[in-house]
Amino acid sequence: MPALHPANACPPPAAAPAPDSTRAAPAPQRELLRSLYEAAVRSAQPLHTLGAHLPAPPPGGRTVVIGAGKAGGAMAQAVEALWPADAPLSGLVVTRYGHVPPRPAGLPERIELVEAAHPVPDAAGLQAAERMLALVQGLTPQDLVLCLISGGGSSLLTLPAEGLSLADKQRIHQALLESGAGIAEMNCVRKHLSRIKGGRLAAACAPARVVTLAISDVPGDDVSVIASGPTVADAGTCADALDILRRYRIEVPEAVRERLASGALETPKPGDALFAGHAVQLIATPRQSLQAAAQAAREAGWTAHILSDEMEGESREVGRVHAALARAVALHGEPFARPCIILSGGETTVTVRPRREGAERGRGGRAGEFCLGLAQALQGQPGVWALAADTDGIDGVEDNAGAFVTPDTLARAAAAERRVADHLDRNDAYGYFAALGDLLVTGPTHTNVNDFRALLIE
Question: Where is this region: Disordered (predicted)?
Fold first, then answer.
């Protein structure tokens, strides 16, 4: 069997107090899984990836930096570190609360960083969007707009369409998050209910040239979906947005529905002259991060397989599919020979179940819910270990990145009088894995290439 190597030093997982009999014993398998997650995150750090895609300063013009996303702080600092000291540089970037990285000593602040709410927008995000639109007014063809985009920007950069209030947008965002809609569906709606998304920010920058540098957090790396594509042409339509709203039974004000039906809220389309001369570069993708993790596994002596970086679907069901694969490998050596490590990524969804009267809302995100489905379907299969985590360090709105599943997860949970089915019923992955000491807590990672999942089969 391959050697198991410990991960780089990291803060230990924080968890709710639990009886010692329910706690997972320290295991080299867990440390290896954690080290693979760290390799995936490290490969997507903006300072390592942005320089190769940075354009030259415009001769005789200004460079204005704008952007939004959970990696926005690190991306802005990378630009500041790499941009020529004698070239003009200014701008405004919005990131999630608590996601501004520590500023390196001696690095001058040339780009203003502000914070706003995610995953549901707030007034700070609205103010940032208004300021950003004002900032790009009056530019000339000699000027350059550098737009830094990463996952989370749909919430962080919010400017409701005419007829919508911030409260309307917050309600619609929350309903989309709880509906089970995929990220492309959610962002189609968000684009058409915004005055800044879906290419509209690019229109506001005219006649300046726009270069968009993006970190992908979406299946397929469609740049028009990342952060709802504020500087990218949108092939979706008002009719598409209306269909999604109907399908998931999400209400919008009647006047807004009528404007969608008439096409009055249509977004700029591919081929529009306003995008002439603009450029888009992906500086980090989910697949690149999975490849980095696979390489780290191979260096530790393991055979590694990447299933896909584009997996979507209900989190618990994707967990069950992964469990079926892991059991097939463990029991029959098919389709992969054991021992091995299986990696996957993408963006799953969680449909929030109705709460029973008087019951508390469950806590957790899609990584934790994946782990619940996985643990339930593994049935305590010996020799199978797993980690699922969000690469931004935050699973949903909690303080953990994800959770571990071990061969004795169900047995330890039974000792703590916890049943997977009960926690799935109330979408409470956090409570389940916290009681077992199996949460992965990293804090914000300052990047975001979406879901990371690793199965280790001995």
Answer: 1-26
Per-residue pLDDT tens listing for the chain (458 residues):
454 433 333 333 333 334 444 565 558 999 999 999 999 999 999 999 999 999 999 999 999 999 999 999 999 999 999 999 999 999 999 999 999 999 999 999 999 999 999 999 999 999 999 999 999 999 999 999 999 999 999 999 999 999 999 999 999 999 999 898 999 999 999 999 999 999 999 999 999 999 999 999 999 999 999 999 999 999 999 999 999 999 999 999 999 999 999 999 999 999 999 999 999 999 999 999 999 999 999 999 999 999 999 999 999 999 999 999 999 999 999 999 999 999 999 999 999 887 666 667 789 999 999 999 999 999 999 999 999 999 999 998 899 999 999 999 999 999 999 999 999 999 999 999 999 999 999 999 999 999 999 999 99
Number of domains in the chain: 2
Domain end residue (candidates: 231, 254, 284): 284
Residue 212 sits at φ, ψ, to 5 deg, of -100, 125
What is the domain-level CATH number for residue 370? 3.40.1480.10
| Same-domain check for residues 329 and 269 | no
Round to whole Å and give the CA distance between 83 and 80. Answer: 5
Q: Domain range for residue 58?
A: 47-284
Residue 258 in domain: yes
The pTM (predicted TM-score) of the whole model is: 0.91
The answer to the question of residue 435 being in a domain is yes
CATH number at residue 82: 3.40.50.10180
Asked if 14 contacts 441 with a C-beta cutoff of 8 angstroms, the reply is yes
Of the three residues 253, 268, 284, the one that is the final residue of a domain is: 284
d(CA 378, CA 384): 8
Contact 245, 253 (CB under 8 A): no
